[in-house]
Amino acid sequence: MGGRHNGGGFEHEPVMIAEIVDVFAAVPTGVVVDATLGGGGHADAILRSRDDLSLVGLDQDPMALAAAADRLASHGERVRLVRCRFDRLAASLDDLSVANVVGVLFDLGVSSPQVDLPERGFSYRNDGPLDMRMDTDQELTAEVLVNQADGKELAAVIRRYGDERFASRIADAIVAARPVSGTAELAELVRRAIPAAARRRGGHPAKRTFQALRIAVNRELDVLEPALEQAIDRLLPSGRGAVLTYHSGEDRIVKAVLRAAEAVSPSPRGLPVELAPEGSIALIRRGGVTPTAEEKERNPRAASARLRVFEKLEIAA
Ligand SMILES: C[S@@+](CC[C@H](N)C(=O)[O-])C[C@H]1O[C@@H](n2cnc3c(N)ncnc32)[C@H](O)[C@@H]1O
Fold first, then answer.
1. How far is CA 24 from the centre of its chain?
2. Model pTM score
């Protein structure tokens, strides 16, 4: 079940697949929303594990949706797919007349095919256009950011979303070299802007800058909080949510939203025990869980993953 799948050329090995299936093993019968459908690997595993669940799958990338449609075809009417950004989660459920759900999954960031296909412009290893859009109809591309953004703004993006110490040097090098015409040229500019001694640490020298530009182009962190809040709001009591994050910027936001929705803890004097206020959740395994060493070894995408799980509580009487 956890192996690589080639659905119409869309190869993406789902991260922590056994753990994700386990999250939804005991939720009530109903609808699960996969807010980041990708190639549909997690969705397929969830649907196979429980024949009383149906699925609404969201993705803003038409290529991912096409691959998922292909992969999930055997589940027939149990699956409904919507092309949208996930901060339209509540609106999409409304459009489908789905009031509440029993599960929600966010597997954040990009998929392997998005990164591996040079023409999508996410790859620092291959030459491609400066694109990096998940939603291929969106106006803002990496090309616009790289060639038109103010140098200070560019440095701030690279620092904030890439945790890159040499953000100012990199931004200066980009501004001096404009117009930059492709991902290979950008990767080489970044490599040369980082001092030689620092280049030997932390993987490919352009990795952090590419991550930062990708996050900015897709406004990945801006839409996360509203999407999670909508997901928590639509969950039925005993319904569960699972969020897979891949870097500290994502994880910080997820942690903050989940903490804010957490139930008030029981009274320290024991009596009376405060009941959960409407809409609150309990965190399952505070701090989250990470993949096994074996999975991290086998699947490089899993190396930085953290899974946070929560359950919607019964409403106080
Ligand atoms: C890591 S992949 C998901 C892989 C999937 N779990 C699987 O098993 O194949 C993330 C997917 O979410 C999509 N995505 C990321 N952010 C999104 C957002 N804000 N709205 C909608 N889709 C998003 C990406 O286009 C990508 O296809």
1. 18
2. 0.92
